[in-house]
Amino acid sequence: MFVGALTMLGSACSYEGDAYVTGVLRSGAEPLENYGNVVHLRAVPDHIDGFSPSRPYMGDRFLEANCPLDHTEFPVDFIMFGDHSDVVGAPPRWLLLAWVGDSEDETWIRSGQRYGTATFEFLQGYDTSWADAIEIELDQTYGQR
């Protein structure tokens, strides 16, 4: 399991590891408070058929993090940390899903939630994996609210 943490401007969430993803998260035009109170990020190997919100990722390679929405001012630069050994040998293309939910325990988007996605590939060095400058706009709503 590839579990990490999220650091956002203005948040107290932090962690250090030897794999990381950096980028910027944008809020879109609609107020995110209408969709929940927790910002989630989850990076998973991308499905061969691409992303579908109705197809949750159930594998054992992932990086996830969340922070309270009230600790976040958009646009926000973020960095997620995790373990390099869990990236090595994984499929090259990954998906980063960001969404706003009601609970810190959520692991995948549900109907009515605001979200955005981006695909990326980790670059690899000696005992390090990284992906830089991922941009996600929270500009889509899954299903009906």
Descriptive overview:
With 145 residues, the protein is mainly beta. It has a single domain (5-141), classed as Immunoglobulin-like (Sandwich), CATH 2.60.40. 0% of the residues lie in helices and 45% in strands. The protein has a five-stranded mixed β-sheet with strand order 1-5-2-9-8, with no helix packed on it. A five-stranded antiparallel β-sheet has the order 4-3-6-7-10, with no helix packed on it. It is globular. 32% of the residues are buried. Mean pLDDT is 85; it is low at 1-15.
Question: Taking Cα atoms only, what radius of gyration do you get, to the nearest Å?
Answer: 14 Å
Mean pLDDT score: 85
| CATH secondary-structure class | Mainly Beta
Number of helices: 0
What is the global morphology? globular
Q: Care to count the β-strands?
A: 10
> Could you please say which CATH topology applies here?
Immunoglobulin-like
Helical proportion, percent range: under 10%
Are there runs of 5+ residues with pLDDT below 50, and where?
1-15
Order of helices and strands: EEEEEEEEEE
Q: Order of strands across the biggest sheet?
A: 1-5-2-9-8
Helices and strands: which structural class? mainly beta
Major sheet: 5 strands, mixed
The name of the CATH architecture is: Sandwich
Oligomer: single chain
Question: Distance N terminus to C terminus?
Answer: 32 Å
Beta percentage is 35-45%
Number of domains: 1
Give a topology summary.
Elements: E1 5-8, E2 19-26, E3 38-45, E4 63-68, E5 76-82, E6 93-101, E7 114-121, E8 123-125, E9 128-137, E10 140-141
Parallel strand pairs: 2-9
Antiparallel strand pairs: 1-5, 2-5, 3-4, 3-6, 6-7, 7-10, 8-9
